[in-house]
Amino acid sequence: xxxxxxxxxxxxxxEVNRQxxxxxxxxxxxxxxxxxxxxxxxxxxxxxxxTNYSLGNTGFDWVGFKxxxxxxxxxxxxxxxxxxxxxxxxxxxxxxxLGLGAALLVNSLGxxxxxxxxxxxxxxxxxxxxxxxxxxFMLHPTIGVINQTLExxxxxxxxxxxxxxxxxxxxxxxxxxxxxxxxxxxxxIGIWQGFGFNMVLYLAGLxxxxxxxxxxxxxxxxxxxxxxxxxxxxxxxxxxxxxxxxISCIRAFQVxxxxxxxxxxxxxxxxxxxxMMFAIFEKGVQQNLxxxxxxxxxxxLVFVMFLTLIQRWLVERKVHY
Amino acid sequence: MTRDVWKHLILVIGAIIVLAxxxxxxxYSFKSPGEIDRGVGGFFGAQEMMVDxxxxxxxxxxxxxxxxxxxxYPGKTDSEIRAAxxxxxxxxxxxxxxxxxxxxxxxxxxxxxxxxxxxxxxxSIFIVQVLVALPAAYALAKLKFWGREAVFGLVLFCxxxxxxxxxxxxYIMLAKVGLTNTYAALVVPWTISVFGIFLMRxxxxxxxxxxxxxxxxxxxxxxxxxxxxxxxxxxxxxxxFAIFSIVAHWNDYFWPRIVVxxxxxxxxxxxxxxxxxxxxxxxxxxxxxxxxxxxxxxxxVAFLVAQRRFIEGITLSGMK
Lengths: 321, 320
Hints:
Oligomer: heterodimer
Strand content of chain B: under 5%
Distance between the termini of chain B: 37 Å
Mean pLDDT of chain A: 86
Largest sheet of chain A: none
CATH architecture of the largest domain in chain B: Orthogonal Bundle
Largest sheet of chain B: 2 strands, antiparallel
Helix content of chain B: over 70%
Helix content of chain A: over 70%
Strand content of chain A: under 5%
Low-confidence stretches of chain A: 1-10
CATH topology of the largest domain in chain B: MetI-like fold
């Protein structure tokens, strides 16, 4: 027995060693790229955010917290934070609620519901930049189809609506050119594009809700549809909701295509749509103010990481609220 | 039953709003400039013959050209010859609006080149992502080695970093090594997909060890196991990941906008459309919408054909 075991035991450490070497060999490219493409840039942005570096200059000066100081004192950046957080605060709840609503309706209709699922998912697939340009045409103040349609209501009973009455009297809004409307139009397009994605995630979540739970709830006296939703569906969808909210937040924070398409210069009327990604692009890339661009990058990373960490923490607690 | 009617009513209103821009995009791409301006013509437009003014202007002959063709018009003055040539040009340059829009989309800008660039970039990104992620995922799932937990921890940490967010330092690094305005710049930042590693690792965890042991008995190296045993088992997961990756990068505008400046030769489809918009005057709404339609169509058609797979792929990040 010992004679058979001995070589096997001797082989084991060598085998382990060999496997370890292969394993490192297999992960090496991924590890190298992870460092080079994901970790080094974060460090680089962190360092540059304390400098006044510009591409093309040979050297740079350390400026301490001056860049961050500027972010929290200049009115331009105040507008940036307001635009970004308004966008996130509107798009996330509305697109999550619409996604959930659409999922519940589609789910209750059975096979016929699938056609709506397909339609609502189309904007997720379409190139956002192309669709933004189409929206811009539709929102054109004079030849756009939206204002042309609104004008049809002039002279009819619909004029009792104050918005339409004002429009017929003084002209309909300029939409993208109007500082009171620009950010809301931007939010609307964000919701239009994103809610189908949330709907699909909720539909996947709904298939996991057990039928027996509804029967049990009915036994316990939950007669109305609302009661069943409140007692069974909503708690069962807890993990899905956590995920949907996080991913919607991260996507909303990253809004850029529509802003750049509508207002290539300066972030909208009165900077009302000057979102963070656009600020990074404008300051860092176009104006070569790398220090300030890096400072915005760092803040952006903090927001996104914070959100994801909250999500992971909630998932680990296996939320059912 | 009446409840269902209400549900349909709500969903149909939603569907109309969702489909409106797609409808308008297609409709504009069919119509003549006049119809677009006046907002008439229904969905297809009247499709009356129209004259392309730029085409006619190009054919306007100068003095030398008139002199060259003068023998063909005996006994005519120069202005009569010019009028005759222009009349012919108007006939040659008239076409249906739909033909005008779609031919302009390809002639005014090198749209085919843009589409080809889009294919090259998305395909390269996906291939490199798989080449890098698959071996790493296999090692993390099936090999025991010191430091495995640390590597996996690093993967989980990197999942927190969206590549778009670190675009500025990446751009600086690429500029420093002189790689901006190259295909490499468009591809490099996306070569590492930590999400892909994570996803494939979760998938490989479900592959039975016996399969790998059997391959080792046959004398296969670990490297051969990755490509000849694990890759074939992973096809369904890879297909979903492919859709996820291709949709994201075909539609991406932010990153190409940063690293490609100037040279049209490197433009991806969204960049090409953006440039088209930049120098478009009113009469070019139609061709621009035709370009938009051409760019959006491939993914939409693929989605309609293989819906279930697409939804699976796009929502991958939700399946944990």
